Amino acid sequence: MMECYITDRQSLAVPESLLHAIARNLAEGPEWIQIREKDLSARELFDLVRAAMVLPNPRRAKFLVNSRVDVALAAGADGVHLPSQSPPPHFWRPIAPPGFLIGISCHTVDEVRAAAHEDADYVLFGPVFPPISKTSSQPALGLDKLSRAAESVRIPVLALGGITPENAGACIEAGAAGIAGISIYQK
User: Fold this and answer.
1) The domain 2-185: what is its CATH number?
2) 173: exposed, middle or buried (C-beta count within 10 Å: 0-12, 13-18, 19+)?
3) Which of 15, 23, 60, 150 could bond 157 through an S-S bridge, CB–CB 3.0 to 4.6 Å?
4) 3-state class of 150 per DSSP?
5) How far is CA 155 from CA 48, 83, 98, 133, in A?
6) Tens of pLDDT along 33-48?
7) By mean pLDDT, which of 6-15, 110-119, 143-152 is the weakest?
8) Hey, where are the domains in the chain?
9) Alpha-carbon dihedral angle through residues 121, 122, 123, 129, given to the nearest 10 degrees
10) Is residue 149 a contact partner of residue 120, using CB atoms and an 8 Å limit?
């Protein structure tokens, strides 16, 4: 099962810094760390990504930057995660190094198919359940739609939204390649 920790420093316990939370999660072993600090300037985000990338990383987790292809490339991150209405992955491939991961947030089975067709490496599909860490205008899609999304493509589909230790297994049983989230990794 693939795991992706999505950062959100606003939802951390007060005494914990974001870098400490990233270090803690690196030690626990998710395959990907998606740095998703939307309110930071490009410089602040670049500095954060660079600082995170020098933390001990015993399992060699990959670092993804949310939305900012420019910052991901400049910082030497392993990839970028794009919102659903972004320019498609094939648009970015000519300027990305080999092996650079490009993922997309998807909310419908058609979006999942389009992402795969447009050369995405993976998709985050959701919200599968009502989100825990934030409010969302998107209705929970449920395990049936997750299953249809996962069956419709050959790229990994990770479940997102309301994922807990109690329902993560159901997502995998529904066909997801893994899980992604903010609150499941917060302590």
Assistant:
1) 3.20.20.70
2) exposed
3) 150
4) helix
5) 29, 17, 17, 26
6) 999 999 999 999 999 9
7) 6-15
8) 2-185
9) -170
10) no
